[in-house]
Design brief:
Largest sheet of chain B: 2 strands, antiparallel
Strand order of the largest sheet of chain A: 1-14-13-17-15-16
Strand content of chain A: 15-25%
Largest sheet of chain A: 6 strands, mixed
Shape of chain B: elongated
Number of helices of chain A: 14
Shape of chain A: elongated
Radius of gyration of chain A: 38 Å
Helix content of chain A: 25-40%
Number of helices of chain B: 5
Strand order of the largest sheet of chain B: 1-4
Distance between the termini of chain B: 57 Å
Radius of gyration of chain B: 26 Å
Chains: A alpha/beta (about 550), B mainly alpha (about 190), C mainly alpha (about 350)
Helix content of chain B: 25-40%
Oligomer: heterotrimer
Chain lengths: ~550, ~190, ~350
């Protein structure tokens, strides 16, 4: 049966690459659940934003889907127990990050029962308001599953000024090797469509485009069938040509709508919201089934694994276990990459937990001899392929000489780090690393600047306080002196007046006695006549 | 005759340029520039006094008056020196040998077992980052500590120690690629 | 298990600087063979000599500058510079001329400016101009292409001429060398002959061949063919030769239409001298060319215009080297004013917005 589909007009973004897909190697088998691990290490920061803080203690029993760490701020997400068991540790453990630095994790010894906490399943979510639904998405800890891990509930709330016209569901998955979204679309097309409808309802978008690359015919077929079966008219599958990086949010928007997201803005500024297919399914699970985000599809692939495949994995499962379930390493395995070959980062060990943002584990064999890095010969190949239409060579020039102002003039922060420039560079310059270096340096300078401004304020405040205290002390001293002075004057006055008036008899007696002594002395030495007045000043 | 023409031409040109310069001086006059503020804004505000001036602002004033060089700030390191050279339009000056490397950011902490609560460190801290009272144990507010180490010498029991600022996943920085001989240099 | 760490992307294209250079060198071969056929063994001797000098100077400078010698020596850039320079020199140029030109190109024009990737001026053209203005007499010793009245020297005779300056018995310099067609046109136009008269002159006529000078047509034709191949393969940028050729065509056509007696026809312009070599192989040196698409169009067009100006009104018969060096100078300006608009930015934001900061200081 052939059905005619409306052909959506497509545009091009600048540059990009045609890459070999290598996807078929991991799509042969259906997705199965990974074996329930004995020990789960759940990082508390698996999202962009503030780290979640634990709400259970070591020794507590937890149920599957129970919140174990709460978000304290708006841009953050709670973390749930992926399975039932006992919390045995809350401490810093290595988590997948390019730095190799550890971060706070919760360790759960599973009891093997996989017992769910209470789930609140909804059959007709439209009885709830978009705000209530968004709250549920928030409680379910859903983050962008395409890899960016931005809290979804924040994205679903674009603010009163931006009305969402078009919802774009990103099923492009343009990086080579990765196939988890492909498998998800094939196997969970129904959940995907229901999830799309929910998101559409939450942001009141007029229509929804599901973008899928033309190298995934099976997924396209499944999703289209689901749409037809439910005879939906405002959800449409758009088949886009396979070009890397058409799955980038900004690039996909350009392809589908010809609009560009302003450099200093968000897609919502131009009436667009983009969500990954995995996120849409997670939204479906959270609302219809009441299940928070505790598992995801992960592709385990590459020439360095024996049986490449996709697994449904609980968050916190060790990578080494997944590799084992994929037949183990090939003898030449040399590099373990989280993510794809273009944007993923290497891991030095496989004893790391799977996180919400981990879509793929790619194991590469020892590469053939790579040519040595040579100086830039200004060939301009990088600028030709740059999907952000930047001048990678100028960025490289300024980044490597730590010229951080210039590098921003050349729009460093519009770089999406897709790696196209490094890929084509005949001099094999690791361009993207220079950009990451410059970006993190600039962020660091910004942090330092804020900190030093803060220190200046505190220092000035302290200086002012010290000055004030000094002044106060001086003032006090002065006042004391003044008082003394006044007192003295008053006494002098009193003394002067005392000659006429009757004063203290004691004093008068002393004075009289002293007078007598002085008179005696004067009689002996014949002193000058006015010296008699002097001692009276010392008498107090 | 020809020499007269030459002299007249030169005189006219001289006059014109004089007018032009005079006009430019009025038109493009630079208003009193708060250059000290700008320099101060670039300094790390540790108030540590390692520049031999009693704090960042005095050092900024010294630079502005031409009294001090731009390479005397060890906590700021090369970054600050380059920023200053950029701001002031002067040639970068290499840092002293001992401060040649990127400065490691540090903070101090108090060994609470040893502290006798003498308050001497509190008086020394330029940013009020130490909490405590007489005969009470003192503690450092780590977020406020600038790493100036000025509290260390006054401590009679040597209970204040230096530690590097811990780097987490959010503050970690990508290093420059190795093998830099192919890259343009600063 | 412990793994190696590296930065993304983890896949790269297989191209390298040396593969680009060697492909360009390969594309020079057909045109070079034509030159040897028409102008004799001197072409080959020059190339070999220049290559030896270039590699020696390169190795020396790398050693002095404490750079890794092997990868840089093997990258092919010095060889390419040497070949381009050698092809531009007269076939019987004395050995020291080639040596001085090549050594100057590599040592001064390339390494003193920072080596591969950092030189603002095309090293081959700098070397050429240095010997052109220093030794004008030797630079006119062009061998006439395979004409009846002239005989090409044998290989050993050529070697002897180049290395000792001694001509074989019974030969005079006038017998083995003669002015190039471009030179002749220039001189004779100066003597108030018309283009038509020169081309049909009994003494010079035969050298003009069908379009651009006998022999030269073939050489240029072959360089054009292999150059086009490189452009199609994306190894060189097509915009630079396109801009150059279109501009030269437009200008020469306009002037020839205006006065065909005093201005040479466009076909002659395109197929004489080193136009195709210059357009496809020298001007496209990425290090010294503009980098943006628009900038490259303008860069090529500027070279084309300068070539026409120098050929028509300048003091030298050909002006490719000067034209390229003049446009090399303009590259930073071209790049600055032809920056592409980045995604999500408006045209008006760029490229002037950081000017304010400069003014402050």
């Amino acid at each position: 049966m052939t059905v005619k589909h409306r052909t959506h007009h497509l545009w091009h973004f600048h540059g990009g690459l045609k890459l070999e897909g290598h996807k078929a190697m991991s799509t042969a088998e259906p997705v199965v659940k990974a074996i329930l691990p004995k020990r789960l290490v759940v990082p508390l920061q698996q999202h962009i934003g503030d780290i979640a803080s634990p709400v259970v203690n070591v020794g507590d029993k937890v149920l599957k889907g129970q919140i174990i760490a709460e978000n304290n701020s708006y841009v953050s997400a709670p973390v749930h127990a992926p399975s039932s068991g006992t919390v045995t540790d809350i401490d810093n453990f290595p988590t997948p990050h390019p730095s190799g630095i550890s971060s706070l994790c919760m360790v759960i010894e599973t009891d093997g029962e996989d017992r769910w906490a209470e789930r609140e399943a909804l059959t007709d979510p439209r009885q709830l308001s978009p705000v209530e639904l968004r709250q549920k998405v928030r409680r379910a800890g859903i983050v962008g599953l395409g890899g960016a891990t931005f809290p979804t509930s924040v994205k679903l709330n674009p603010g009163p000024d931006s009305a969402i016209e078009t919802l774009i569901i990103n099923g492009v998955e343009c990086e080579p090797y990765i196939s988890c979204d492909d498998m998800l679309m094939r196997e969970q097309a129904k959940a995907l469509i229901l999830g799309c409808e929910l998101i559409q309802y939450m942001v009141s978008a007029h229509h929804c485009l599901i973008a899928i690359e033309d190298n995934k015919p099976e997924a396209i077929h499944q999703v289209r069938q689901e749409i037809e079966a439910r005879s939906l008219h405002n959800i449409e599958v758009v088949v886009v040509p396979t070009v890397y990086p058409s799955g980038g949010e900004k690039q996909l928007i350009k392809i589908l709508t010809h609009k560009e997201v302003p450099s200093d803005g968000l897609p919502s500024d131009i009436g667009i919201l983009v969500q990954n297919v995995g996120t849409a399914v997670a939204v479906h699970n959270a609302i219809y089934l009441g299940e928070p985000l505790i598992s995801r599809y992960v592709t385990i692939t590459g020439e360095g694994v024996q049986q490449p495949r996709n697994l449904e994995v609980l968050i916190g499962t060790q990578m080494s276990e997944l590799i084992e379930q994929s037949g183990g390493y090939h003898e030449n395995a040399a590099k373990l990459i989280m993510g794809g070959p273009m944007m993923g980062f290497t891991l030095s060990t496989d004893h790391l937990p799977i996180t919400k943002g981990c879509n793929c584990l790619l194991v590469e064999n020892t590469p053939e001899q790579t040519p040595e890095t040579m100086p830039c010969i200004r060939c301009g190949a990088c600028a030709t392929v740059c999907p952000a239409q930047l001048l990678p060579q100028q960025l490289y020039w300024h980044a490597s000489s730590k010229n951080f102002e210039q590098v921003q003039d050349y729009h460093l922060f519009d770089c999406i780090e897709c790696g196209c420039c490094s890929y084509v560079c005949p001099s094999q310059i690791p361009l993207v690393q220079y950009y990451r270096f410059a970006k993190t340096e600039i962020w660091n300078q910004e942090r330092e600047r804020i900190k030093s401004d803060h220190a200046r304020v505190r220092h000035d405040f302290r200086q002012a306080r010290l000055d004030r205290e000094k002044k106060e002390r001086e003032e006090k001293l002065r006042k004391k002196k003044e008082m003394l002075e006044k007192k003295k004057q008053a006494e002098a006055k009193a003394a002067a007046e005392g000659k006429s008036d009757a004063v203290d008899p004691k004093k008068a007696a002393i004075e009289a006695a002293m007078k007598r002594v002085q008179e005696k002395k004067a009689a002996q030495q014949k002193p000058p006549s006015d010296s008699a007045e002097k001692p009276s000043g010392d008498s107090e | 005759m020809s020499i007269l023409i030459a002299v007249i031409t030169l005189a006219i040109i001289a006059g014109l340029f004089g007018l032009l310069l005079g006009y430019a001086a009025i038109k493009f006059r630079v208003e009193g520039d708060p250059v000290v503020d700008k320099i101060d804004a670039l300094l790390p505000q540790t108030q540590c006094g390692q520049c031999s001036y009693p704090g960042c602002r005095p050092y900024a004033e010294a630079i502005a008056s031409g009294e001090a060089n731009i390479n005397q700030c060890p906590p700021g390191g090369e970054t600050t020196m380059l920023a200053l050279s950029d701001l002031l339009g002067v040639e970068p000056v290499p840092l002293d040998e001992e401060h040649d490397r990127e400065p490691v950011k540090t903070v101090v902490y108090i060994d609470e077992q040893t502290c006798i609560g003498c308050t001497l460190c509190i008086q020394a801290c330029p940013v009020d980052a130490i909490l405590g009272a007489a005969k009470q144990m003192h503690t450092i507010i780590e977020d406020e500590c600038t790493g100036c180490d000025l509290c260390i010498p006054p401590c009679p029991v040597d209970c204040i120690h230096v530690k590097p600022v811990s780097v987490d996943q959010n503050t970690w920085r990508w290093p420059l690629p190795e093998n830099q001989h192919t890259a343009p240099q600063a | 298990m412990q793994f190696k760490t590296a930065t993304s992307p983890h896949q790269t294209h297989t191209s390298s600087v040396s593969s680009v250079m060697y492909k360009v060198l390969l594309a020079l071969i057909p045109g070079t063979i034509a030159m040897i056929v028409f102008f004799g063994w001197g072409v080959l001797v020059n190339i070999l000599l220049a290559c030896v000098v270039a590699l020696t100077s390169e190795a020396l400078m790398l050693w002095v500058r404490k750079r890794p010698i092997k990868p840089y020596l093997m990258d092919g850039s010095a060889l390419l510079t040497a070949c381009l320079l050698a092809l531009a020199l007269p076939q019987l140029a004395p050995w020291w001329l080639t040596t001085v030109g090549t050594a100057f190109a590599i040592i001064v024009a390339k390494h003193l400016y920072g080596g591969l990737g950092f030189n603002p001026f095309n090293p081959a053209m700098v070397g050429y101009v240095v010997v052109l203005i220093s030794f004008p007499r030797e630079m006119t010793q062009w061998v006439p292409p395979l004409l009846e009245d002239y005989t090409l020297l044998t290989f050993s005779e050529t070697l002897r001429v180049i290395f000792t300056g001694e001509l074989p018995l019974n030969y005079t310099w006038d017998a083995v060398t003669m002015a190039t067609p471009l030179d002749t046109i220039k001189t004779q136009l100066g003597l108030e002959l018309s283009v038509g008269e020169i081309e049909n002159h009994k003494q010079y006529g035969s050298m003009f061949g069908e379009i651009g000078g006998f022999g030269w047509e073939w050489v240029n034709g072959l360089f054009l063919a292999t150059g086009l191949l490189l452009a199609i393969k994306g190894i060189i940028d097509w915009r630079i030769p396109a801009g150059l050729i279109i501009t030269l065509l437009l200008l020469s056509n306009t002037f020839a239409l205006y006065d065909y007696a005093s201005y040479t026809p466009p076909t002659f312009h395109l197929f004489s001298g080193g136009i195709m070599l210059g357009a496809f192989f020298i001007a496209t040196d990425p290090v010294t060319a503009a980098t943006s698409s628009k900038g490259r169009w303008l860069f090529g067009a500027g070279i084309g215009a300068f070539i026409f100006i120098i050929r028509t009104w300048g003091g030298y018969p050909d002006g490719i080297a000067f034209a390229i060096l003049l446009m090399n100078m303009a590259v930073p300006l071209l790049d600055y004013y032809t920056m592409p608009r980045a995604y999500g930015h408006r045209w008006t934001e760029f490229p002037h917005h950081h000017k304010e900061q400069d003014d402050e200081i």
